[in-house]
Amino acid sequence: MKPSFTAMIIDDEPSGINTLKKLLQINCPEVEITGTCTNADLAIQMLRELKPQMVFLDIAMPVKTGFDIVREVKSQRFEIIFVTAHNQFMIEAFHFSAIDYLLKPVEDDLLVDAVSRAKLRISEKFGANNVETLLYNLKINQPSQKMKLCIPSFKGFQVIDLDEIIYAESSGNYTNIYFTNKPMVCTTKPMHEYEALLQDAGFARIHKSILVNLLHVKEYIRGEGGSIILSTGQILEVSRRKKESFLAQMKAFYKF
């Protein structure tokens, strides 16, 4: 296959670069490695000169980290795939920002999946929002509700504050997200992906098709499943099967 995407690998360990190059040659022949670098300052210069479409970037580099490199070249448009062994907070920040990461040692199938998503974002030209969102989420170092979420829609990407979300509703393979201060957005991801992403950020499933932000739950009314009143005054039913887990999450979230 003729290469159709240019890429650069930045890692302070030559062995890491060589390993990743071989994995890409075997699993992703459409990706052409146009440059490699082990030095952060030189990498910044090379990024500006080579203008790759995709960058595989190690985080734990001496003097300047991978995040420092991103901050200095954030005006450039390229898709980043971080290569990391970092803690859960950073991984959470990656997820919210719709940016891919690979844990060392890199697994073939996860590499292929990450490259496929990066290729899609390149073709849709929406990478800049992802980077800005990630840098914000890393900077605040606050609980998840204070983070920003990058959500893909049919028009592109939107970056929103988590506390602006009132609830999300399943719509087949898509998800409708309702906000406090803007029109509903239909995202191109299914509900189960948002449930997995947001379940530890103060969101709870109250129905097979509804994921609600507990921050906006103002009242619970008892019943077989019961119902909730949101900050907007809207009333939503809680299914009988979700009642117990919902109430447990409410108690944990509000500590009562």
Descriptive report:
With 256 residues, the protein is of the alpha/beta class. The longest helix has 17 residues, at 108-124. The protein is 36% helix and 29% strand. The mean pLDDT is 86. Helix 4 (88-96) runs antiparallel to helix 6. The protein has helices at 14-27, 40-50, 66-72, 88-96, 108-124, 127-140, 191-198, 243-254, and strands at residues 5-10, 31-37, 54-58, 79-84, 100-103, 148-152, 157-161, 165-171, 174-179, 185-187, 203-207, 210-213, 217-221, 227-230, 235-237. Strand 11 (203-207) and strand 12 form a beta hairpin.
Would you tell me the structural class of the helices and strands? alpha/beta
Number of H/I helices: 8
What's the overall geometry?
elongated
Unreliable segments (pLDDT under 50, ≥5 consecutive)? none
Q: How would you sum up the major sheet?
A: 5 strands, parallel
What labels would you give this structure?
256 residues; alpha/beta; Rossmann fold; OB fold (Dihydrolipoamide Acetyltransferase, E2P); 2 domains; 5-stranded parallel sheet; 5-stranded antiparallel sheet; 15 strands
Q: Secondary-structure blueprint of this entry?
A:
Blueprint: E1 5-10, H1 14-27, E2 31-37, H2 40-50, E3 54-58, H3 66-72, E4 79-84, H4 88-96, E5 100-103, H5 108-124, H6 127-140, E6 148-152, E7 157-161, E8 165-171, E9 174-179, E10 185-187, H7 191-198, E11 203-207, E12 210-213, E13 217-221, E14 227-230, E15 235-237, H8 243-254
Parallel strand pairs: 1-2, 1-3, 3-4, 4-5
Antiparallel strand pairs: 6-7, 8-9, 8-12, 9-10, 11-12, 13-14, 14-15
Helix pairs in contact: 4-6
